[in-house]
Fold:
Amino acid sequence: MTDAKRTLSKEIGDVAMSLDGDAGSAGIVRTRRVSFDQPGRELVLEGGGTLSPFTLAYETYGTLSERRDNAILVTHALSGDAHVAGRHSANDKRPGWWDMLIGPGKGLDTDKYFVICSNVIGGCSGSTGPASENPATGRPYGTDFPIITIADMVNAQAMLLDHLGIEKLLAAVGGSMGGMQVLEWAISHPDRVHLCVPLATAARQPTQAIAFNEVGRQAIMADPNWKGGHYYGGKPPAKGLSVARMVGHITYLSDEAMQEKFGRRLRDIHDYSFTFSADFEVESYLRHQGLSFTDRFDANTYLYITRALDYFDLTRQHGTLVQAFRDVKARFLVMGFSSDWLHPPYQLKEIVSALRATHKHVSYYEVESHYGHDAFLLEREKMEGIIGAFLSSGAHTFALRR
Amino acid sequence: MRRIDYKLIEGLVPDGATVLDLACGDGELLAYLIAARNVRGSGVEIDQAAVEKCVGRGLSVFHGDLDAGLADYPDQSHDVVILSLSLQQLRRPRMIVREMVRVGRLAIVSFPNFAHWSTRWQLFAGGRMPVTRDLPYQWWDTPNIHLCTIQDFRVLCREEGLCIERELYLRSMDRPAPDRPVLPNLLARVGIFAVTRC
Structure:
């Protein structure tokens, strides 16, 4: 459908673009699913045991080249999903979560590249997670779902690539938890990825981030509706999840961004109400973010994914970070964001130093931004050029090697 | 045409060396050294647009400020560290020279020679800060905040305990000085020093 639409808009040129008013869009896309239920295709988990059967939800944009050498995997963050670009229908109000960077002529140019994004294992947007049916009981897993790790997410993605017939990725690109998956790709599948672009991330989950995640988890588990994780069929722990999301949101912003966005402005009132209702705009914003999150996200998934984040530590796993990257073959573009205090630039530079220690090909780029951690989802103009340049110069070397 | 100063620098770099180019700009020198000397090169650059150009050329570059030093680079991790025509723009030139010989076995520094006769003459005859082809700025908007002379740099090397392995000069940007130059501190527009820790 995407192809047909693009061909059409190419044929009638600018007229079509101005008519649909969505130039640069990846177009109308739909989420696909693939189930791995055949024997011998179970997911072997890092924490022991296997997951089988399982399903992955994914979307693709652009066309896979005949040589299958233009595939880019985009990996999503904590609350993301497979819908990274384009729209699900013509009157879909919100495009995919990284639509600003993905589409014809954009940084991840879908006229050149075949872009794939899948919902992580353990997720709640189409891939198998705690809300999925446990084949052993016929009921949702709940907290019987196994603990998953970043490596498990990546290994599931590798099975998706097998399914799509892609032996080697041109690139893996992702921010925050997506960046951790990118690092894991380079380490655990060194022959399957040529370029890596980790953004706003870390080689080990920092203490402060574990702390915030723990607050979120405690909020969920303190909600009486949580019921030890077996709440499906009843009322979900929406209050707890909403508080978890509010805490998360604070860590994605910055002092400056909050000052600018909300200041001390009051919401629809001229004076304090002298009650505990949401007088301040920032309160009302957080309440809204928390509440709307509960419509689309599963509280148990929040527990599982934050756990996966907290367990991520390449130094623990490999001894040192230098050792972790020793067998990496990919070229790296590592990007930090100046006001990100969840993953400050020093955490990105740590990755760069470790790669450099064994003379890996690595570039570091720091985006000047006051948006905090969220900058990687917002600073289109400051990111597009450098990512585009890295991909096209890397595409050249990829083609030469094959 | 290839810049003469790059050619002279190339002559100082061993084949296959690991090279770190500080203030590498858009990566022209690095790309040249990779092509000519098969070096394993990387750069440091502060300007975003220049970093983007480096990345577009397939170079490995670190977006950072040299005035913060080279803390992320381990001791003696490179064969050669280069600082081409940028020493005079740094806030802490002495610190960076020290960092260069810490990180690299050989440091190559090139800089405009402020004692060239043309700058001397402008200061002497006109009584004003020199504005030349190589230093084309007025004093109030120049990025060149730490100008020095060939003689000054020799003194710095002595004070830092550095051995000068080679000293090369440019008569102008398109003409190298003769092999045995007379009065380089008066006649050279650019000095290129290769130094090591003694």
Q: What stands out?
A: Residues 39 and 169 of chain B are 24 Å apart (CA to CA).
